[in-house]
UniProtKB/TrEMBL annotation:
Pfam families reported for this sequence: Acyltransferase
GO MF terms, alphabetically ordered: 1-acylglycerol-3-phosphate O-acyltransferase activity
Record keywords, A-Z: Acyltransferase, Membrane, Transferase, Transmembrane, Transmembrane helix
Protein name: 1-acyl-sn-glycerol-3-phosphate acyltransferase
EC number: 2.3.1.51
Start and end residues of each Phospholipid/glycerol acyltransferase domain: 72-186
Species this protein is from: Phyllobacterium ifriqiyense
Membrane spanning stretches: 7-30
Length: 261
């Protein structure tokens, strides 16, 4: 049943993307940028609805009161493609730092360009960081929110953390709060797999880390608070009445935490 529901959801997910881009293209490109955000945010909400109805995967989010006003750095845990869009409805005017190849995709790349995202060449690290910092300064000067995944790539639930120093460098450059976000989406939407497991994705928005800390101290705190919350959410899922399948990384981490499954 999980396989069938996953296939149905995946087909509808991509159809939803294509149909919405085509139908709403005139409104999107003729509207001012901030008003045009209604289209991607509607797409995100509809994806969450499709996942709930057809894959049986709901979500619960706590800590919305921790979202600050104005510019800040949003730093979610990155476990799944789910976390690339799930927070869109809650962020006023986000800016993503993304690989430049996405800009080359017909129509999709034009959508990205409309929102003035920050494309970087990941093959040139030094130049990529300069571009990211320049784009980040431009974003926050306009009151926008910068989306950064501190580990840089998707990691499996329970895997040892590997936070990159780039987020600390940008934190020190911008002088704005950082909003850590923990979740366990990788248990229900595993990376590099088409299966979507039923259950409830739990997401926790943590209190912002205020500007002014030493970069190294900031990075240590960001990792500590995010990983501690992710551990709690992992244990909650593993000990629930209907736990999702646990990848080897999650099983190992649960054993480290003293939880046998």
């Amino acid at each position: 049943m999980t396989i069938i529901r996953s296939i149905i959801f995946n087909v509808l997910f991509y159809l939803n993307l294509i149909v919405q881009m085509i139908i709403f293209t005139p409104y999107y490109f003729l509207s001012p940028r901030k008003r045009a955000w209604a289209i991607p945010k509607n797409w995100a909400r509809s994806n969450l609805w499709l996942q709930k109805v057809f894959a049986g995967t709901d979500m619960e989010i706590e800590g919305l009161e921790n979202i600050p006003d104005g510019p800040y750095i949003c730093a979610p845990k990155h476990q799944s493609f789910w976390d690339a869009y799930a927070f869109l409805p809650y962020i006023a005017d986000p800016v993503y730092i993304l690989k430049r190849e996405l800009m080359w995709i017909p129509l999709f790349g034009w959508y990205i360009q409309k929102m003035k995202m920050v494309p970087i060449d990941r093959g040139k690290r030094s130049a990529a960081m300069k571009t990211a910092v320049k784009g980040a300064h431009f974003a926050v000067s306009g009151g926008r929110q910068l989306m950064i995944y501190p580990e840089g790539t998707r990691t499996s639930p329970g895997a040892p953390p590997a936070y990159k120093y780039g987020v600390a460098h940008i934190y020190g450059e911008l002088g704005v709060p950082v909003l850590p976000i923990a979740h366990n989406a990788g248990l229900y939407w595993p990376r590099r797999r088409f299966l979507r497991h039923p259950g409830v994705i739990r997401c926790r928005i943590l209190p912002p880390i205020q500007p002014g800390m030493d970069n190294d101290a900031f990075l240590k705190k960001l990792q500590e608070v995010t990983e501690a919350a992710c551990d709690e959410l992992l244990v909650e899922a593993a000990t629930s009445a209907n736990p999702p399948p646990m990848p080897p990384t999650a099983v190992r981490r649960l054993k480290e935490l003293g939880v046998e499954i």
